[in-house]
Design a protein that fits this description.
single chain; alpha+beta; Alpha-Beta Plaits; 31% strand; globular; Methyltransferase type 11
Length: 70
């Protein structure tokens, strides 16, 4: 399993649910969660072969910022 962490600008619970649903629909095998309490509004994605660029593209296309953290 690989875990990737992304910084986002998702602030609202409704936005979190929307972004999670879209990513989950595209990548059903990924485990996805947000930490909206964190100052970076963390998106955490866990999976076997993560496609980081695709995750970032999907979130960006929804109108949100998504930056992979090292």
């Amino acid at each position: 399993m690989v875990v990737e962490i992304f910084k986002t600008n998702v602030y609202k619970e409704s936005d979190k649910n929307y972004v999670t649903a879209v990513i989950q629909n595209q990548f059903p095998d990924y485990k996805i969660n947000f930490d909206l309490e964190d100052c970076d509004k963390i998106l955490r994605v866990e999976g076997v072969e993560l496609q980081c660029d695709n995750i970032i593209d999907y979130v960006n296309c929804l109108g949100y910022t998504c930056i992979r953290l090292d």
